Input
Amino acid sequence: MTRAPSVTTLDALARLLGPKGFTADPDAMAPWLTDWRGKYHGAAAAMLSPATTEEVAAVVTLCAENDVALVPQGGNSGMVGGATPDESGNALLLSTRRMNHIRIIDEATQFAIVEAGVILEHLHEAALEHGLRFPLTLGGKGSATIGGLVSTNAGGTQVLRHGTMRALVAGIEAVLPDGSIFDGLAPLKKDNRGYDLRHLLCGAEGTLGIVTAACLRLVPAVAARRTAWTGLESPESARRLLRRLDTAIGGELEGFEIIPHSCLDAVLRHIPQTRAPLSGVYPWYALIELAGEREEALDSALQTELTSALEAGLLDDVVIAKNDRESEDFWRLRDSISEAERAEGPAIQHDISVPVDLMPAFIGENPQRLANAFPGVRALSFGHLGDGNVHHHVQPPVDVDGKAWLAEHGEALSRLVYSHVIELGGSISAEHGIGQMKRDMLAELDSPARLAALRGIKAGLDPAGLFNPGKLIG
Ligand SMILES: Cc1cc2nc3c(=O)[nH]c(=O)nc-3n(C[C@H](O)[C@H](O)[C@H](O)COP(=O)(O)OP(=O)(O)OC[C@H]3O[C@@H](n4cnc5c(N)ncnc54)[C@H](O)[C@@H]3O)c2cc1C
Output
């Protein structure tokens, strides 16, 4: 049972953190009490911004002694309301913004030790100065922090080759709910001491520990990159093309995104200075990217494989970007889809995954299932086919008040989407996490065995439920 912090507790926290680390000023806290999408609004008794791991540990110890809940927050760019406290105002917001030091970038071992509040883009820049790269990027890179990325096990556009955060976190430092510091930063290749706390904390959404730093794997900076845009008949052709490229040049294949024509069309209509890469119109497009050491080798591999795929009828047309500028233009089309979709009117979004080979079945069948239950709705999927993850957006019928229609039918519609995903052995959250947005849906649809295990882990590590209550399974 959590309680509102007493004046004595708040005074003790203010003394502990000093004026830079403590505020209860409503105006200063306001921007951090609404989530990125403006969907969730919360309240907090105070916002704490500790500067060191020891300060985090002291804060957690004090809160544990007084049954006060803590909501960790990094860049507040999460998509599921995970970093927004509830409306009671009893919780404290714990921001990692002042823990923003890159402790080490080691060129020899290609590891970086990075504090939780470091912004992803800053890590990219710092790694590049050492001729290295942190191979994870996403649209929110100017705001998302390492702590948030670890805690949501974030993905992005390079997962195909380098994996999600879980694959890139070689070590972790965190403060556990009793205030103890778990120092697991050493990048051990082998470690068989039982349950892996590092992996448990990745994707825990702040419900099991406050991540204070991570040891991250780096790779050499990209020397050469090649991007192609292809026109295709169907998601099944795209899947077969992906498999073919993966077998032939999998080591260099970094991105494989699919886009239906309706999405490209929306981008071309709503986003200024965009143009279609191909002169013909095709039902689907695949955006393919290779990264490697030598330009000539990439060129030749891509040319050879795409020509033979063209001959085999797996694709209908293709253009390879001639330079970085063209490559960026291709990616801009892909990255502008969400913005263009917003301009089209209200829609309900689903971030789902199924096994890669079942993705064409999902994309093909789900719109019909939805239309049978809700005549007139339009569903479209785009995104990371190579990861078996698409963003599945559903628009209301054209002749209704879209917002009101979604408010009435959105939940039932999402249930149909998620039930189909689960039927195919997939996940109702591929990238963004559960937060408060999908908490009830997870409790309803996930397997009882899995839910019981998750609840057992939470109860074992945080018996008083002080870390990020109301999120994930709380
Ligand atoms: C334009 C845009 C594009 C995006 N694209 C992608 C994408 O392609 N792939 C993807 O995976 N995500 C994407 N996201 C979502 C978002 O960027 C990620 O979820 C990111 O990991 C959030 O980082 P953050 O620092 O903003 O975390 P926050 O939003 O502050 O927090 C997210 C969750 O992590 C917890 N948390 C934060 N810091 C800590 C910590 N130090 N210790 C413990 N818990 C903590 C919070 O309590 C919350 O539950 C995108 C977001 C935007 C705005």
